[in-house]
Design brief:
The chain is mostly beta strands. The protein folds into two domains: about 160 residues, Protein Transport Mog1p, Chain A; about 120 residues, no CATH class. Helices cover about 15% and strands about 35% of the residues. The strands form two sheets. Strands 9-8-16-15-14-13-12-11-10 form a nine-stranded antiparallel sheet. The termini are close together.
Amino acid sequence: MRPTLLVFVVLLLLSACGGGTPTTNAPTSAPASAPTQAPAPTSAPASAPTQAPAPTTAPAAAGQFDPRAAEPCAVFNPDELAAITGVPLLDAFPGKDRFFATCAYVFNDQDQSNANLGIDLRNPGAEAFAKVIQFNQESGKTVEQIDIGESAAIVENDGEFSLYAVMNGWSVTLYGYKLSREEVIAIGRLLTDRLVAFTPPPAGDVANQPAPQSGALIGMEVVIEEPANMAGVTTLESLNIVSIAGFAMCSFDPAADPFIVTFIARPGEDPPTPVGVFTLSASGGVKPNQPSPANFEVGLGRSDEPQMFAGEGTVIVAADGKSGTFEAGRLKGRWSCTFAE
């Protein structure tokens, strides 16, 4: 079974919905002195394939790639990515709904470095770019303007680099895990003359959504039992979201570093329970059926304006890695995740 490797950033959601974003940590009993904003997740792929299957994506013709119609991973070909990173491509994991086209390109090195591409299918790029850059600046991040496409900037977060750009009218996000600043920029430059011109989607237009890839997250249930002001049952269905990181992500390999379970409700909408943002993250992986230390982050209210609580606690993960329980101060609950075979 292959993992879902779309390590997105909710900043992509912010660009689409106009709010504020993936994460890592849930609450003790009191809020931090000032509500904190959830950082973007920097998780490695949940499991490490032992052999490198040959990616089947084909080269894209310059200026002819239509993100709404094409298979998302076909925008790059393996050889050009390997020429930039110096590492062959191990696999590529596409995703698409009517809002976003995404692809996680995983490289065949020890860290399984990866480049995670997201293209907003509905919103004009300039408008989306302005929102996401404003959010980064207000969050105190260093935003470096660079010369790519119509507009572009690169943002560093805990040693990882994200590129936000407007390419032929499209809003593009490229998040690198274990990739250098120069590699992320070089991959982004490949898109400068590759995409067709952006046009607003027709009313009611829905992009074709492929069948879930093996290992894709197709079901999640997070149950917060205590405290009462956070209690509730959250599922992918109740959130009305697609199972890509930045909306939801769930590790299923106990050795994953970090081991992560997270969901983020759609910005600008009331979540189905009091909690709009939830993340548990265990650095170094976890030991099945044994208490393992973890960091938690929980946001009450809408995900773009959450009241954040952060703390440390423990998780006990089942042997198969797909469910478990958690506790951090007054916070208590459980989760389970389902993956496509």
